[in-house]
Design goal:
39% of the residues lie in helices and 23% in strands. The protein is of the alpha+beta class and 562 residues long. A hairpin with a 6-residue loop joins strand 5 and strand 6. The longest helix has 30 residues.
């Protein structure tokens, strides 16, 4: 807290002027001037060890805790906080206590003011025509809060010789030749500013959406930059993101080596030598974020909006209002129907094929979206939450966060999560259906010359093939190693949702096989298929809302949704 020497009021850091200002007497100071005369008293903190922490390692602040969700914010003002930043609860009295928290080494001061952050948010919401109206209300926008979020910044260096396995493939005549090489390279590479948020309260999906921060503009940390703003505490140790940071640095080195080596294909994962190992330095920093938690009308779900306090980049969870979606769909479909009637001859077979095309599109979209929903539902996209859920020994966690523990394991095993690019096996469900459609609609002349009994046999084989692929997929799900986290939804959970567009494709396939004389069979099947497609599009909207509307968090409390 910085006190104005002229009137004794509380001063705050002003992002526009980059000075500490008094709102009462207009006194302003450069942050360096505000540091003059500040005390640097030593603060003793019990750690369970013989040593103690000084003010160089920790600083004293007031911690406000929400009684509803357990979320914590740091604030050095005397006035009470009136609402929770993380669950949006406004009619609560936050519990406060004086405590010491880990001191960051660097800080990026706020550059974007609240007015600019609000404008970025409102401009984004205006473009979302299907967004609910409560996102635009003044009472919602007024709850924007400037929070310094803790981030781990990694500086990674590779120095020394590296032996890299390389290969070169080329064609000569009718043969493809592959040559393998051992390539020696002198590596002197440094990567700095690779950062990940260090708070389990701040979703990784939100922090990555407003990245990057320009760490070259950071300054030495002092509490003066927190004046007028809140802060979050570091709750995730540096090692959780260290492997990801090393991977990013190694990918960058691999890309540069690849360019310098021309047509050679390199395998950096098999590299040896002293240059193959990374030297990693972690720095705890505070980055500026404008944060907004928005409760829906029922109060049971939240959506978040965040603005990068340095660059102004905005990310907003934008759910879809069903009434606006239905109205917009009707208004959009009317001119499309008129245009199609004017320029396209809508024969029964054309309508049926259109229904199949839309069904396949919805299958592809649903397959991808369900993987995203499953990832979000199980918190696989947030390493901080995964870490919090795996920590069994709170005392060990506190020692690690204070830097006094060299342990790398918690509870029953080592936490070493690595991003795996798991490709969703969409062919397992859609490939067989696409093959069926292709055979039925592209090879009509062939089918006309085939006896009806043989047609039924071909259709039965295709269905059995599809079912076989489904069974193999389910068996693969069951045979996964227990505890090994995957990034896509088990097929047994996908099936009820994807069944609607799949039935639309099957219905069209059956009509194509029967090849009825009367057109009303085609029209009736087309109507049924399009209705199933509409229901599947409704499932897409529901999945989108599940990604945007989150359950209220329960942090540092038993049970809950995190």
């Amino acid at each position: 807290m910085v006190i104005c020497k002229s009137c004794g009021a509380f001063m705050r850091f002003d992002p526009d002027s980059q000075r500490v200002k008094c709102d009462y007497c207009d006194t302003s100071l450069d942050p360096v001037e505000a540091l003059v005369g500040k005390k640097s008293d030593k603060v003793s903190v019990p750690t369970g060890e013989e040593d103690t922490k000084t003010a160089a390692d920790e600083y004293e602040t007031v911690i406000y805790t929400c009684p509803q969700c357990g979320g914590e914010i740091l604030w050095d003002d005397d006035t009470a906080a009136t609402f929770c930043s993380y669950c949006g609860a406004s009619a609560v009295t936050l519990e406060k206590r004086l405590d010491s928290v880990k001191r960051p080494e660097k800080v990026i001061p706020f550059v974007i003011s609240k007015e600019k952050a609000v404008k970025s948010y409102t401009d984004t919401v205006k473009k979302a025509v299907f967004a609910p109206d409560y996102l635009r209300q003044d009472s919602t926008v007024s709850m924007f809060r400037g929070i310094y979020m803790p981030y781990w910044c990694y500086d990674i260096s590779h120095e020394g010789r590296m032996n890299v396995k390389g290969s070169k493939t080329y064609r000569r005549g009718d043969y493809v030749h592959t040559e393998f090489y051992d390539i020696d390279a002198q590596v002197d590479a440094k990567s700095s500013g690779i950062s990940f948020d260090a708070s389990a309260s701040f979703s990784d999906s939100l922090s990555s959406a407003i990245a990057p921060f320009h760490t070259q503009n950071s300054r030495e940390f002092d509490e003066v930059f927190l004046s007028g703003f809140y802060a979050d505490r570091c709750t995730v140790p540096a090692r959780i993101y260290e492997e990801m940071a090393v991977n990013i640095a190694e990918d960058d080195i691999s890309e540069k080596l690849q360019k310098s080596m021309g047509h050679y294909s390199l395998s950096l994962s098999k590299a040896t030598g002293d240059g193959a190992f990374a030297g990693v330095m972690q720095t705890l920093c505070y980055f500026p974020v404008w944060f907004l938690a928005i409760r829906d009308k029922g109060g049971s779900h939240l959506s978040y909006a965040v603005v990068n306090g340095q660059t102004g980049k905005v990310a907003v969870d934008l759910p879809v209002d069903y009434k606006k979606y239905l109205l917009g769909s009707v208004l959009l479909s009317l001119p499309i129907i008129v245009i199609l009637n004017l320029f396209v001859l809508l024969s029964p077979r054309t309508i049926l094929v259109a229904g199949v095309v839309f069904a396949i599109i919805s299958l592809i979209m649903l397959n991808k979206q369900l993987d995203q929903v499953y990832t979000r539902r199980m918190n696989f996209d947030d390493r901080g939450i995964v870490y919090k859920s795996m920590v069994m020994d709170e005392e060990t966690a506190q020692r690690e966060m204070s830097g006094t523990s060299s342990e790398k394991t918690f509870g029953t095993g080592t936490i070493a999560l690595r991003d795996k690019k798991v490709k969703s096996d969409s062919f397992s469900f859609m490939g067989a259906l696409i093959v069926i459609v292709y055979i039925l609609f592209q090879c009509q002349e062939l089918f006309e010359s085939i006896p009806s009994g043989f047609k039924t046999t071909i259709f039965t084989i295709a269905v059995v093939f599809a079912l076989l692929v489904f069974i193999l997929r389910r068996m693969a799900d069951k045979n996964r190693v227990q505890g090994k986290r995957v990034m896509y939804m088990p097929f047994s959970e996908k099936l009820p949702v994807m069944l609607k567009p799949a039935l639309a494709v099957v219905a069209a396939a059956v009509v194509a096989l029967i090849n009825p004389v009367h057109d009303y069979f085609y029209y009736g099947t087309a109507i049924v298929s399009l209705l199933l497609v509409l229901f599947s599009f409704a499932d897409l909207v529901k999945g989108h809302n599940e990604l945007c509307l989150r359950k209220p968090p329960q942090m540092n409390k038993r049970g809950g949704d995190m």
